[in-house]
Write a structure and sequence with these properties.
The chain is an alpha/beta fold. Helices cover about 30% and strands about 20% of the residues. It has one domain: UDP-n-acetylglucosamine1-carboxyvinyl-transferase, Chain, CATH 3.65.10.10. InterPro entries: Enolpyruvate_Tfrase_dom (IPR001986), Enolpyruvate_Tfrase_sf (IPR036968), EPSP_synthase_CS (IPR023193), RNA3'P_cycl/enolpyr_Trfase_a/b (IPR013792).
């Protein structure tokens, strides 16, 4: 989204972790990735393309992918994730509401989300005590000025150091 570069150290050559699917998805969205001795390197082109992707096997990626898709240059459809209505919060409803509150155009489908990019503006991004909602808001904040995460501390569920790591990544 920003045209930057992120290195994730110690990324394995093979893994069954859902996050590994990001290599394929982010490449389809216009970025590139390469596994190097330093780790997995993601490089953005500065523009993001919409995708039509089934996330059924990697549903936990949906909030982050939805945030990136909201900043794309064409629509996206995220499918196969109806089960996200039963997580810490109804993630599909929450993503729809929060992205739309920032000026987006997201609608729920029977099994996912349809996202039509719009120019977004700042505002409070509510997390619903859901760590993945907090990280989705942080992703939007990379490209949208004045996005405030209502409770970033909820990321402690899976990554207690998220706020410090995020700040360090940004060089702030």
């Amino acid at each position: 989204m920003t045209g930057g570069r992120v290195v994730i150290p110690d990324w394995p050559a093979r893994t069954t972790q859902p996050g590994d699917r990001l290599r394929e998805i982010f490449t389809e969205m216009g970025g590139s990735c390469e596994l190097t001795e330093s780790g997995l390197v993601f490089t953005g082109s500065g523009s993001v393309h919409g995708v039509d992707v089934d996330l059924g096997e990697v549903g936990e990626l949906t909030p982050g992918i939805a945030a990136v898709a909201a900043l794309a240059d064409s629509p996206s459809t995220l499918r196969g994730v109806a089960h996200l209505r039963l997580h810490e919060t109804d993630r599909l409803a929450a993503l729809t509401k929060e992205i739309n509150e920032l000026g987006g155009d997201v609608t729920e489908t029977a099994d996912g989300l349809h996202i039509r990019p719009r120019r977004l503006h700042g505002g409070v991004f509510h997390t619903y005590e859901d760590h993945r909602m907090a990280t989705a808001g942080a992703i939007l904040g990379l490209a949208v000025e004045d996005v405030q995460i209502e409770n970033v501390a909820t990321t402690a569920k899976t990554l207690p150091d998220f706020p410090d790591l995020w700040t360090g990544m940004l060089g702030a």
